[in-house]
């Protein structure tokens, strides 16, 4: 069964999953985007369906079709995703933010197509920060005192300021979500590829858990862990 009616560790639960990459409009025909394929989010949705959950799927731009059997909401920009996510979260048991959300959007969106004019300088695109949807979901959950598990995804690289796990641990502290699924991103790794390996960090002190294999394997591990956390936190 694909709608939460059947057996499984998430039977009777509502799971909201965001996936894909947001697109931030510059004008009616152009946008700033990113390389998220949506494959990990789609795999999460399939795993949650298989676990018996009702799945709300908030799809930003994806290279593939969302899995059948989800309640599909298409979104374009980070602001649209924020609205859809805060709404869907109200009665969700689990929220998973797998979407690649643009950190910035163009400050001004032209109503008409931006034209080049000979002899004039090239336009400068000024950006403004997008809201942090994951953080807002956690704040809304805490304010409403909802029994809800919130899971973030993070793509990290090591750099001069720290390695992947140091960055991820700092991010988990900042976002205060329950679990953070951390991907190690390098050139040509993870984005659009079919295999990955992740570390699942807990915001409540549990040891880091690793999972690897196909995106379906990783998704199954995340969904299993979500079911375990749900039954432990809200028996
Ligand atoms: N996220 C979000 N809203 C944003 C940016 C990110 O909800 N405006 C979510 C993503 O969906 C993901 C998690 O936050 O679940 C981590 O995203 P990431 O881009 O790694 O975190 P940032 O806080 O944006 O940090 P960075 O500056 O490293 O990009
Ligand atoms: Ca970001």
Automatic annotation (TrEMBL):
A GO MF annotation of the entry reads: phosphopantothenoylcysteine decarboxylase activity
Sequence ranges assigned to domain DNA/pantothenate metabolism flavoprotein C-terminal in this UniProt record: 10-226
- Which UniProt key words apply to this protein? Decarboxylase, Flavoprotein, FMN, Ligase, Lyase, Magnesium, Metal-binding, Multifunctional enzyme
Q: Which GO terms describe its cellular component?
A: phosphopantothenoylcysteine decarboxylase complex
Tell me the GO BP annotations in alphabetical order. coenzyme A biosynthetic process; pantothenate catabolic process
Q: Which family does it belong to?
A: In the C-terminal section; belongs to the PPC synthetase family.
Instruction: Give me the residues that bind CTP, please.
Output: 103, 113, 131-134, 153, 171, 175
| Protein name from the UniProt record | Coenzyme A biosynthesis bifunctional protein CoaBC
Say which domain of life the source belongs to. Bacteria
Tell me, what does this protein do in biology? Answer: Catalyzes two steps in the biosynthesis of coenzyme A. In the first step cysteine is conjugated to 4'-phosphopantothenate to form 4-phosphopantothenoylcysteine, in the latter compound is decarboxylated to form 4'-phosphopantotheine.
Membrane-spanning intervals of the chain: none
The protein's annotated catalytic reaction(s) are: (R)-4'-phosphopantothenate + L-cysteine + CTP = N-[(R)-4-phosphopantothenoyl]-L-cysteine + CMP + diphosphate + H(+); N-[(R)-4-phosphopantothenoyl]-L-cysteine + H(+) = (R)-4'-phosphopantetheine + CO2
- Identify the cofactor(s): Mg(2+); FMN
Annotated region Phosphopantothenate--cysteine ligase: the residues are 15-235
Q: Does the keyword Ligase apply?
A: yes
Q: Which organism is it from?
A: Paenarthrobacter ureafaciens
The pathway is: Cofactor biosynthesis; coenzyme A biosynthesis; CoA from (R)-pantothenate: step 3/5; Cofactor biosynthesis; coenzyme A biosynthesis; CoA from (R)-pantothenate: step 2/5
EC number(s) given by UniProt: 4.1.1.36, 6.3.2.5
